[in-house]
Recover the amino acids of this structure.
C-alpha cells in the first residue's frame, strides 16, 4: 500500500487550520482597525497588540506540563467553539452598546489566551499526524497604526498585504510540496534567502 500524507486526520486538521487562519485574518483585521478608529490613539492600538503576546508567552510555560498528561482534541475543538461564541456575543454587544476600550482589552486577552491553548495543543498533535518520511511535505502549513496614519497607506492596502502574505506562503508551500530539494543545497538556499531579505528590509 502506497504511503500518503493525506490521511483522514491530517486532512481534517489541515482543513480546520485553513478555515481558522482565514477567520483570524478577517477578525484581526476588522477588530484592530476598530480600536484605532474608535480611539484615534496609536498607543491604544499598540497596547492591544502587545497584550495579545502575553498569553502566548506565559500559558505554554505554565500549561505545557499539564497538557502533556491530557488529551489534546478537547482543547482544539472546545477552543474553537468558545471562540465562535465569544465573537458572536461581541457582535451582539456592539449592536446594542457603545465601544469600550477596557472591554476590548479584556476581550483580546481572553481570545489570545484561548489561542495560546489552541496553538499548544495543535503543535503537539500535528507532528504525530505526519507519516514517517513525509515530514518535508507535511511542513510545507499554511501595522495597524501605520496603515491608518502614514499618508498613502490605507486599510485596503493592509488587506492586500495580508493576501500577498497568504499567497506567498501558499505558493511557497506548494513548490516545496511538489519539488524535492537536494540536501546539499538546502543550507545554501536558506543562507541566500536570509541575505536577500536582510538586504531589502
Amino acid at each position: 500500500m502506497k504511503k500518503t500524507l493525506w490521511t483522514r486526520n491530517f486532512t481534517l486538521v489541515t482543513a480546520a487550520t485553513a478555515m481558522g487562519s482565514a477567520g483570524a485574518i478577517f477578525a484581526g483585521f476588522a477588530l484592530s482597525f476598530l480600536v484605532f478608529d474608535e480611539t484615534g490613539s496609536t498607543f491604544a492600538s499598540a497596547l492591544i497588540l502587545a497584550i495579545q503576546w502575553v498569553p502566548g508567552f506565559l500559558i505554554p510555560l505554565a500549561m505545557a506540563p499539564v497538557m502533556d498528561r491530557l488529551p489534546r482534541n478537547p482543547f482544539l475543538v472546545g477552543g474553537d467553539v468558545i471562540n465562535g461564541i465569544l465573537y458572536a456575543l461581541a457582535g451582539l454587544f456592539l449592536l446594542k452598546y457603545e465601544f469600550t476600550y477596557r472591554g476590548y482589552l479584556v476581550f483580546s486577552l481572553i481570545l489570545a489566551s484561548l489561542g495560546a491553548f489552541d496553538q499548544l495543543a495543535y503543535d503537539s498533535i500535528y507532528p504525530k499526524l505526519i507519516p514517517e518520511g513525509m515530514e518535508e511535505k507535511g511542513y510545507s502549513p499554511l501595522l495597524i497604526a501605520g496603515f491608518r496614519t502614514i499618508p498613502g497607506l490605507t486599510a485596503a492596502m493592509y488587506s492586500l498585504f495580508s493576501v500577498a502574505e497568504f499567497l506567498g506562503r501558499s505558493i511557497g508551500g506548494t513548490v516545496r510540496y511538489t519539488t524535492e530539494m537536494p540536501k546539499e543545497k538546502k543550507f545554501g538556499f536558506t543562507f541566500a534567502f536570509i541575505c536577500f531579505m536582510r538586504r531589502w528590509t
